[in-house]
Write a structure and sequence with these properties.
Blueprint (H helix, E strand, L loop, with lengths): L6 H6 L1 E3 L3 E4 L5 E3 L4 E3 L2 E3 L1 H13 L2 H6 L3 H4 L3 H11 L4 H8 L4 H29 L26 H11 L15 H11 L9 E2 H11 L3 H10 L3 E3 L5 E4 L2
Helix pairs in contact: 6-7, 8-9, 10-11
């Protein structure tokens, strides 16, 4: 849903379905037609979804700016500038915090960022127009929002994904894994499929994680390590609890 959302949907952080609002940042759903109580006040579903985003993610901006730079296309320098601009800092304040150049230097950075915005708008328009003409375009597997390794291992089509799943889950993806793939692209596909066995928003004890992964493959420690390494799972520092990383 995240990558298929429109620009307006990404900005608001949720999409509206027929019967519910779904948070694009974590997948939480708020059912329409229900009044939700909080701190003695009743809220309709849309407002409650906005409150969820504020409470769980601080803001859509802060969630997006925290994504890997290979997803945002921002340099570390640009990332910090945008954070300070979002905080309402003027050019002199930004220059003072970053310790670079002068206020006019910051103004030049603003100009460069606006140029990047204009280029992004044109590129999006070109890609939308291309959809109607490029009959050979292939569907690639989606990027995980919290992916730590964004590179050509995601250069996998949906058809290739099905082939890999049939090879390593010969009895179906809900059954045991035949073996753990040697290639990074294949591992990514398998790990994405394994994540369907976990519930979003739920905290798992280490014993539960080991049981779930043990049913998939005999070396549950290996799977657990790769799920964390690829950014699919997160955990407490002591390893006592795990959860889906969204």
């Amino acid at each position: 849903m995240f990558w298929g959302a429109s620009q307006d949907e990404l900005k608001q952080g949720y999409i509206e379905g027929k019967n519910q609002y779904v948070c694009l940042l974590c997948g939480s759903a708020i059912e329409k037609g229900i009044v939700y109580p909080k701190d003695g006040i009743l809220y309709e579903a849309k407002r409650y979804m906005r409150m969820h985003i504020e409470h769980a993610h601080r803001s859509v901006f802060e969630y997006l700016i925290d994504l890997d730079k290979k997803l945002t296309g921002l340099t570390d320098h640009q990332n910090r500038l945008l954070r300070l601009f979002y905080q309402g800092k003027n050019d002199a304040e930004v220059q003072g915090e970053m310790g670079i150049g002068s206020p006019s230097t910051i103004r030049n950075h603003r100009f460069v960022l606006k140029e990047k915005e204009r280029q992004a708008k044109l590129f999006l328009a070109l890609m939308e127009l291309l959809k109607d003409k490029d009959e050979y375009a292939q569907a690639f597997i989606p990027l995980h929002q919290k992916a730590r390794m964004v590179d050509d291992r995601y250069n996998v089509t949906e058809d290739e994904k099905l082939t890999v799943l049939k090879k390593y889950f010969p009895k179906g993806s809900q059954d045991a894994l035949k073996s753990f793939p040697p290639k990074e692209k294949q591992r990514l596909i398998i790990l994405q499929e394994i994540m369907n066995r976990f519930e979003n928003g739920r905290k798992y004890e280490e014993k539960e994680i080991n049981q779930i992964l043990g049913a998939v493959y005999h070396d549950h420690v290996l799977l657990r390590r790769y799920l964390i390494e690829y950014g699919f799972l997160d955990r407490k520092p002591d390893g006592s609890q795990y959860w889906l990383k969204k």
